[in-house]
Design goal:
Blueprint: E1 6-10, H1 14-25, E2 29-34, H2 45-55, E3 71-75, E4 88-91, H3 97-110, E5 116-119, H4 126-129, H5 135-139, E6 141-146, E7 155-160, H6 166-178, E8 183-186, H7 195-212, H8 217-223, H9 236-242, H10 244-257, H11 271-278, E9 291-296, E10 299-305, E11 312-314, H12 321-327, H13 332-341, H14 347-365, H15 374-385, H16 391-398, H17 400-409, H18 416-423, E12 430-433, E13 436-441, E14 446-449, H19 459-464, E15 468-471, E16 475-481, E17 484-489, H20 498-510, E18 518-522, H21 534-542, H22 546-564, E19 570-573, E20 576-579, H23 581-587, E21 591-595, E22 598-601, H24 615-630, H25 637-648, H26 656-661, E23 670-672, H27 678-690, E24 702-704, H28 707-722, H29 728-741, E25 750-752, H30 754-769, H31 772-784
Parallel strand pairs: 1-2, 1-4, 2-3, 4-5, 5-6, 7-8, 17-18, 18-19, 19-21, 20-22, 21-23
Antiparallel strand pairs: 6-7, 9-10, 10-11, 12-13, 13-14, 15-16, 16-17, 24-25
Domain 3-hydroxyacyl-CoA dehydrogenase C-terminal: 193-292
Domain 3-hydroxyacyl-CoA dehydrogenase NAD binding: 6-189
Pfam family, one: 3HCDH
């Protein structure tokens, strides 16, 4: 399969436009085409409408506004020939067989002979879509089913037909993983494939069970979220997010398409759901669903639907003792076993048992109908629905044989192949053997290696292999091989505390060794680093121990400067929230390999502080000093204002691409779409840099603009205060940022060493930390997770 650089997306509806947007996020050139309207002069009216809705969607479909420039709009009537040079053509038009077949007949006449051809259909058999096409067409045709929204959901179902070339399927899986950042699963050409087949069953039967057994909306959402390894949206909030019309429509279409399914009746939407559709209570898209967002007494509140009257009432915090008791048991496996053991004496545990076990059993009964592998079924639910564990990994947690016995006691049908597996002496779906993970195959009736993405480096697997060199409660130092080490944070929120700095010192010492090529700073948490441990800061400030804080701040500065000027390359690999000190680590690295979904920002102003780990200094160096070094006569104020506004308003990049626009990433830094590839890519960058590495030179490398520039920045703050856009204390905090950025009390602009601004950072940080209003902001953040404007 040739390299894919240009994509043609046919259909600019919700999914088509979003797929086009995500391909553009990945750096591909995109043709987005749709029908020309029958009336009106603008032949692109339809495609423009879909494109504009996509660019305004929430959450944003595009990683940066500039990404839209990679998408060219057109229509089927005037611009169809543009698909002739596309490497991949994906169709996402109306879900009707006739129009799809007609469109593909046109495509076959126009497309290159080696272009990959795919449909995003979720309800029409792929072999029927390809019916009538040539043998050459069918070899390169498959389903590529994205989950909505494509930017955020990892799952990409690949659905070959009997005629699809296996090399095309594997090529698209690799392309999906490495370019689009997806996790590919191979699904059979059956109704709703894997994710929606299992998800519809689980969703409809769990809602029906709740309605018919007197469970309330709030109490079900309290127990079906993180407690059992599912997202916070749980059950009813998930339906509001997806849209009840979508959830019901998928289930109804599936019901019609699977007359042979023994559990078909469980797919039927409950009558109350149908009544909600009639009342247009579809969820977030209509403003009202199971929940309704409202304002009372100046506060945002969520009311809940009364399913008897279909009116809204204030949502209550349900009293569910099971939640706390189960959490006390430990990890997900411990919680699930505790829930199963208490199902006969706790009504909430009973609900979870009576909905979870049918879902597990149904998943097994659908194998190998929908997929040949248990791994793909698990990944479909993990990547498409955000479950911590798919059905078979969950079943293993509960114990396969014990769970089968529970199912039989509840008259739940168990798949024959599961009983055969147990009878042959195999008591788990997954097992470890010689350092490899194996999975049971119902087809071969034995264990086979689990497919492994070669670009994924597992730090936990390295730990199991004895590659962990140092460890405490907050951080570890691991050996990635080839002379590359990894500094991993694993404190709460991956925040920076004293223990983190201790392991960082050991990493720095290791960089002096001849057998070490360099260092990766990264981890496998959802967030790279949320900054300093605010709890420690608050405790020290309240106790009047500012000297201890000063020493800790200076220690952080010294360590980050040591990383910057280390004898070997240091590469940071951020993902998720990379805030405050987390961003400062990246700013002092030789290179950054950031996930597409990386949210970077110097957010200290939100808690009444300024960046003091070198963050203010680095923005002054990058945003102000660099352009002035290239053009000494350029006016300094525009550059200074950009750096100042970024810090004073606590701007956070909404993606890795936007982080580059804000100046947090350099041109040489990389943005990787697949977060699971970060450690491997960062290791490769270390080795590339190590071949001819020399540390950066120290010197007078920061331009400090002086008192007059500082006054100009402060006038801007005053203007915001007069317009009531900033509070009086916002001005105090911003004033400290301005002081550091401009060099303190310097009368004239001049070049200064980095240490000059680092000293000013420490002074400003400590001065603010001694203010009661900063204490109030920190306490509010720790208590509510939201900034306080005092």
């Amino acid at each position: 399969m040739r390299q894919i650089r240009k994509v043609a997306v046919l259909g600019a509806g919700t999914m088509g436009a979003a797929i086009a947007g995500h391909c553009a996020n990945a750096g591909l050139d995109v043709e987005l085409l749709d029908i020309a309207p029958e009336e009106g002069d603008d032949k692109n009216a339809v495609v423009k409408g879909g494109f504009e809705r996509m660019t305004k969607s929430r959450p944003p479909a595009l990683m940066a506004k500039s990404v839209a420039d990679r998408i060219r709009l057109g229509n089927f009537e005037e611009d169809f020939e543009r698909i002739a040079d596309a490497d991949w053509i994906v169709e996402a038009i109306i879900e009707k067989l006739g129009p799809k077949q007609e469109l593909w007949a046109r495509v076959e006449k126009t497309a290159r002979e080696d272009a990959v051809l795919s449909s995003n259909t979720s309800g029409i058999p792929l072999h029927e879509v390809a019916d009538g096409r040539s043998e050459g067409f069918k070899k390169r045709f498959l389903g590529t089913h994205f989950f909505n929204p494509p930017r955020y959901l990892k799952l990409l179902e690949l659905i070959p037909t009997e005629d699809t070339d296996p090399a095309i399927v594997e090529g698209m899986r690799t392309f999906g993983e490495r370019v689009l950042g997806k996790g590919g699963v191979i699904a059979k050409d059956t109704p709703n494939f894997i994710g929606n087949r299992l998800g519809s069953f689980a969703g409809m039967q769990s809602v029906t069970y709740a309605f018919e057994n007197g469970y309330g909306i709030e109490e079900i959402d309290a127990i079906t979220g993180p407690l059992i390894g599912h997202p916070k949206t749980a059950t009813f909030r998930l339906n509001d997010t997806v849209g009840l019309d979508i959830a019901v429509g998928v289930a109804e279409n599936l019901y019609e398409a699977v007359p042979e399914d023994e559990s078909r009746e469980d797919l039927k939407p409950h009558p109350k759901l149908k009544e909600m559709l009639e009342r247009n209570l579809l969820g977030n898209k209509t403003g009202s669903g199971f929940y309704k967002r409202d304002k009372r007494d100046g506060k945002t509140v969520f009311d809940v639907l009364d399913l008897e009257t279909f009116e809204y009432k204030p949502a209550s915090d349900p009293n569910v003792p099971l939640v706390n008791r189960a959490r006390e048991q430990g990890d997900l496996a411990d919680r699930l076993r505790y829930i199963m053991d208490n199902a006969e004496k706790d009504r909430h545990a009973k609900y979870l048992r009576d909905t979870l076990l049918p879902y597990l059993a149904y998943s097994a009964r659908r194998i190998p109908e929908i997929s040949d592998t248990l791994v793909d079924a698990d990944h479909a639910m993990e990547w498409g629905f955000g479950h911590k564990a798919g059905p078979f990994r969950t079943w293993d947690m509960l114990g396969v044989e014990e769970t089968v016995n529970r199912m039989k006691s509840l008259d739940i049908e168990v798949a024959e192949w599961v009983e055969e597996m147990l009878a042959s002496g195999n008591d788990s779906f997954y097992r470890e053997e010689d350092g490899r993970e194996l999975v049971y195959s119902p087809l071969s009736k034995g264990y086979e290696p689990v497919y492994e993405d070669p670009m994924v480096v597992s730090l936990d697997a390295l730990r199991d292999e004895g590659k962990e060199l140092e460890r405490n409660d907050s951080a570890s130092l691991l050996d990635l091989g080839d002379g590359v080490l990894c500094l991993e944070f694993h404190s709460r929120g991956n925040s920076i505390d004293g223990n983190t700095l201790e392991i960082a010192k050991k990493a720095l010492a290791a960089l002096e060794r001849d057998d070490v090529a360099g260092l990766v700073i990264g981890n496998e948490g959802s967030n790279f680093c949320v900054g300093a441990n605010l709890g420690e800061v608050a405790f020290a400030a309240k106790g009047g121990m500012l000297q201890i804080v000063e020493k800790r701040v200076e220690a952080l500065q010294n360590i980050l400067m040591a990383f910057k000027y280390a004898p070997k390359p240091v590469v940071s690999a951020p993902r998720g929230q990379t805030l405050g000190g987390g961003l400062e680590i990246c700013l002092h690295s030789d290179r950054v390999v950031a996930a597409g979904e990386t949210y970077m920002g110097l957010v200290e102003a939100g808690v009444g502080l300024i960046p003091a780990g070198g963050g203010t200094k680095e923005l002054a160096r990058r945003i102000v000093s660099r352009p002035l070094a290239k053009a000494p006569d350029a006016p300094v104020l525009p550059f200074l204002q950009k750096a100042f506004e970024t810090i004073a308003t606590a701007k956070v990049a909404a993606s890795g691409l936007e982080a580059r626009e804000l100046g947090f990433l350099d041109e040489d830094d990389l943005v990787v779409m697949n977060a699971d590839h970060l450690i491997a890519t960062a290791k490769r960058e270390v080795l590339d840099l190590a071949a001819s590495y020399a540390p950066p030179e120290k010197g007078q490398n920061v331009y400090a603009a002086g008192r007059s520039a500082r006054a100009a920045l402060e006038v801007g703050v005053r203007t915001l205060q007069w317009g009531r856009y900033a509070s009086e204390y916002d001005g105090v905090v911003a004033g400290q940022s301005a002081r550091v950025l401009t060099g303190g009390d310097l009368s004239l602009g001049q070049w200064v060493p980095e240490e000059h601004l680092l000293r000013l950072e420490r002074e400003g940080f400590l001065k603010l930390l001694g203010n009661e209003k900063t204490h109030e902001r920190i306490e509010a953040m720790l208590r509510t997770g939201k900034p306080l404007r005092n």
